[in-house]
Amino acid sequence: MIPVADAIQIVLSQTSTLSAESVPLSDALARILAENIVADTDLPPFDRAQMDGYAVRAADVVKTPARLRIVGESAAGVGWHNEMNTGEAVRIMTGAPVPSGADAVQQVELTREVNGAGLVEILESVEAGRSIVRQAQEIKRGETVLRAGDDINAQTIATLASFGYAQVKVGRRPHVAVMATGSELVDVDQKPAQDQIRDSNNYTIEAYAKLAGATVERLPLAGDDTEQLKKQIAAAVERSDALITSGGVSMGVYDFTKAALKELGAEIFFERVALRPGKPTVFARIGKTLVFGLPGNPVSVAVTFNLFARTALRIMQGSTQPTLRPETAALARSVKGSAERESYLPAILRTDEKGTLLAEPLKWGGSSDFVAFARTTALINVPADVKLIEKEKIVRIVKLPN
Ligand code: AMP
Ligand code: MG
Fold first, then answer.
1. Nearest CA to ligand 1 atom 10
2. Which end of the chain is more exposed for a tag (fewer CB within 10 A), N or C?
């Protein structure tokens, strides 16, 4: 049995990044950058008005009201490119270039046009620099604004668009084969007969793998039969970057996943982790394909997928932040730890009246209770050998991807 941190370290060291590919910007959402993004222009590219109003010289409007002659108009996209002299003003719109000679913009609400006379009265003085964003104040041309390994999210898209990345280099999506094992399983469209249940793990793993950026192929359900498992595993590893199985890895008489892997010559990196739930998790490689043998219990699947398999899938895409980010919250109720094993316990996050983030441990029937688990948004991390953590204590949590 190895500690969770060691198991994650092994996943990190055994996984390599796949090739990069170029995708159109509108397909880049949720992918991982495979190139640094460099500003090809200053931002703003010129001194830009932040308000609709009048470009003025601050020194001209110290005493108000101040009458100035309107000598031009600078609109977004159509600037006024002359020298503005003392005693003059230029009507200006938000986003338009500030003419040279002007050093401030007074907002239109604090001005009054003198009808027909081509004059404007500035009703309040402004200090130099008011309502102007100076050229390159936000970003200087040539600066690196995003880095290879960063996640592309909706907030990132404007940056990519603004610097002309019509095509973006991203990590290739890993192809994942998913295989549920267990002679009790029937597919979702079947009515379970006596002693049977519907498979849910294939769909759970498919969902999490897609959230992690992978393309997913669900293999036919496999019974508890070493020969059948070997056949499906051998075929699947031929065409996937990772194979993720569930079930058949504990100590039962019909737990054949590990036997099948070993008979196929898999290199096993670990097969027992000091983790609750999820102790019998297997990590191996056959040829170039990584294999995750997750336990059968649906909650263990969610925990072990997100600790280990997700990490590998994100490394494959070049992520520099492949693991779940540790955060903290206050416990809404005490939790029990486990001797020798680190726990990742399902929890619901909420805030109290004071705005403190609370983690409420889920009341559940154990790692098979996926109906209770459906309300989970995070996992509470209890170190190994900690008997109890009292209510209100600060604990480490990880949020589940969604
Ligand atoms: P195992 O690790 O194969 O012993 O499975 C542990 C528990 O998880 C058993 O109760 C199984 O019936 C259940 N289980 C295994 N695979 C699945 C699956 N694909 N979907 C739902 N439950 C499963
Ligand atoms: Mg089983």
1. 297
2. C
Q: State the CB neighbour count (10 A cutoff) for residue 209.
A: 24
Strand pairing of 289-294 and 242-246? parallel
Structure tokens at 155: 């907030």
Structure tokens at 388: 């109890």
**Which residue's CA is the closest to the ligand 1 atom numbered 11?**
296
Q: What is the pLDDT of residues 50-77, one digit of tens each?
A: 999 999 999 999 999 999 999 999 999 9
Q: Are 317 and 18 in contact (CB under 8 A)?
A: yes
Enter the tokens of residue 356. 């403190």
Q: Which of 201, 256, 303, 369 to mutate to test the pocket of ligand 1 (most atoms within 8 A of CB)?
A: 201
CA-to-CA separations, 13 to 130, 149, 269, 343, in angstroms, rounded: 53, 17, 11, 23
Measured CA to CA, the distance from residue 310 to residue 324 in angstroms comes to 9
Summarised one tens digit per residue, pLDDT across range 264-321 is 999 999 999 999 999 999 999 999 999 999 999 999 999 999 999 999 999 999 999 9
Residue of 269 and 372 predicted with greater confidence: 269
Q: Is the pLDDT of residue 366 over 90?
A: no
User: Does 92 contact ligand 1 (Cβ within 6 A)?
Assistant: no
Phi first, then psi: give them for residue 232, nearest 5 degrees: -70, -40
Residue among 45, 18, 49, 50 nearest 34 (CA): 18
Name the pTM for this structure. Answer: 0.95
**Residue 92, strand partner residues:** 53, 74
How many residues are listed for the chain in this entry? 402
